[in-house]
Amino acid sequence: MKQQNQNKVQNSKHFETVNPLGNQVICTGQTWFGHIIEGHPVMEGREELVISALEDPDVIFDSNASPKRSVYFKSFQSDQSNRSLYTKVVTNLTHPNVEYVVSTWPQTRISGGIADEKYRKRKD
Fold first, then answer.
1. Which of 31, 103, 93 minimizes the C-alpha distance to 62?
2. Is the CB of residue 14 less than 8 Å from the CB of residue 37?
3. Radius of gyration over every alpha carbon of the chain, rounded to an integer in angstroms
4. What is the rounded CA–CA span in Å between residue 28 and residue 116?
5. Rounded average pLDDT over 93-97
6. CA 18, 37, 105, 112 torsion: positive or negative?
7. Cα–Cα dist 52/113, whole Å
8. Using an 8 Å Cβ cutoff, are 10 and 72 in contact?
9. What beta strand segments (E) does 10-83 contain?
10. Which residue in 37, 38, 40, 91 has the fewest CB atoms around it within 10 Å?
């Protein structure tokens, strides 16, 4: 029964939101717990940072790794170092208007794996 419940969590949606381009963006339990938390433990408990980066990014780029991937960046103030960092989120378009989170981590600047800019938040 425990294995069955674990499989259910891994295959279920961990969270879901909509980006500014109108695409549904889904993060599965398997991706969150099996990849993101395993590979980037600093992201544990940081779902709200990721959701914010997806819903209200500073910028979205096409990925230079795959035409179906997008790379999101959103600045935030680090709790530990009190410095400005970026949440970087990589997604993969699997169906028209549906993206799945591939990975996410914090970094100090907008860089890595990016190609053409496809969205920039308007400054009011």
1. 93
2. no
3. 15
4. 27
5. 96
6. negative
7. 21
8. no
9. 13-18, 24-28, 59-63, 69-77
10. 38
C-alpha 39/C-alpha 17 separation (Å) is 23
Separation between Cα atoms, residue 96 and residue 3, nearest integer Å: 33
Place of tokens 């400005």: 84
* Residue 53, helix vs strand vs coil: helix
Query: Using a CB cutoff of 8 Å and minimum separation of 24, what contacts does 62-66 make?
Result: 62/114, 62/115, 62/116, 62/117, 62/118, 63/90, 63/113, 63/114, 63/115, 64/113, 64/114, 64/115, 65/113, 66/92
Per-residue pLDDT, 11: 66
Query: What letters, b where the CB count within 10 A reaches 16 and e where it falls short, cover 82-109?
Result: eeebbbbbbbbbeeeeebbbbebbeeee
The tens digit of pLDDT for each residue in 3-17 reads 444 445 556 999 999
What's the rounded Cα separation, in Å, for the pair 14 and 9?
8
Residues 88 and 106 sit within 8 Å (Cβ to Cβ): yes
Question: Are the beta carbons of 106 and 86 closer than 8 angstroms?
Answer: yes
